[in-house]
Amino acid sequence: MNAPLFSASNLRKSFGGIAAVDDVSLCIQAGQVIGLIGPNGAGKTTCFNLITGLYTPDAGQLAFKGKPYKPASPHHVAQMGLARTFQNIRLFKSMTALENVAVGMHAKTSQGVLGAILRTPAQRREEIKVQKQAMHWLHYVGIGAYSNHLAGQLSYGDQRRLEIARALASEPALLALDEPAAGMNATEKLKLRELLLQIRHDGKSILLIEHDVKLVMGICDEVTVLDYGKVIAQGTPTQVQQSPAVIEAYLGGLHHAESRE
Ligand SMILES: Nc1ncnc2c1ncn2[C@@H]1O[C@H](COP(=O)(O)OP(=O)(O)OP(=O)(O)O)[C@@H](O)[C@H]1O
């Protein structure tokens, strides 16, 4: 098998003596959709934050594109080719959908900030290119018609799509999505499923945290299940669905939820 696109080995992170992520390893091959699931408080977001540079691991190693990977900051992570969305939508609500996508692309343009201030001809050409690309990504996620709408006025589902467009605009090799279906209705979830399959079809890998188990099982090549910070199952959707530890973690969910309060 080829070297994986991304791997995390034996990651650990504790908060105040409580292990939020405890010896977690996972691997993503190029072109795969990998799911990270588990009950509330299982450690999924902490894992994501370790992978995307928001937290520093207490122990463990990361590798990306065949090299050791030490995410220094979210900006560094984006430059390396890893883009993420957030559980709580983080958009510039009073900017248009187009501006939200374009703003993330400016950091990567060759003219940089000085060019933008001086409004040189080269900067104007680049601006047109950025707008065109931003428009492309809005159409790609299915909200091209709303390019001039303020982000804050879009429906919840469309705001989530806009976040995905903004992440895709940085042309990542790996797209990390933190609960993209949260708050979506059934129709929006179906459309999201189609979009994620399209993204995979177009050659990108996806790491997906999601509470909607049906969505995860329907599109993921492999799934890692966390509970109390530990990996309790790892494998294809069929394999993990049959795991007694997973069944217990989910069916016992009520007891877990109560004991975690
Ligand atoms: N910054 C923090 N400080 C202290 N404890 C934290 C912090 N972040 C997470 N935790 C704790 O770590 C554990 C794992 O939390 P995490 O948010 O990673 O779980 P999760 O699986 O993403 O949960 P959810 O599905 O509810 O989002 C929880 O017990 C949580 O309270």
Strand order of the biggest β-sheet: 6-7-8-3-9-10
Tell me the series of helices and strands, N- to C-terminal.
Answer: EEEHEEHEHHHHEHEHEEHHH
Would you tell me the structural class of the helices and strands?
Answer: alpha/beta
- Helical residues, percent: 40-55%
Give the number of domains.
Answer: 2
Please mark out the parts with pLDDT under 50 across 5 or more consecutive residues, or reply none. Answer: 254-261
The CATH topology of the largest domain, please? Rossmann fold
- Count the beta strands: 10
Q: Radius of gyration in whole Å, from Cα?
A: 19 Å
Average predicted local confidence, pLDDT = 88
- Report the portion of residues in β strands: 15-25%
CATH class of the largest domain: Alpha Beta
Listed once per kind, the bound small molecules are: adenosine-5'-triphosphate
CATH superfamily of the largest domain, called what? P-loop containing nucleotide triphosphate hydrolases
Describe the global form: globular
- Main beta-sheet annotation: 6 strands, mixed
Report the CATH architecture of the largest domain. 3-Layer(aba) Sandwich
Distance between the termini: 43 Å
How many helices?
11
Organism: Limnobacter profundi
Pfam families: ABC_tran, BCA_ABC_TP_C
Keywords: ATP-binding, Cell inner membrane, Cell membrane, Membrane, Nucleotide-binding, Transport
Domain ABC transporter: 6-253
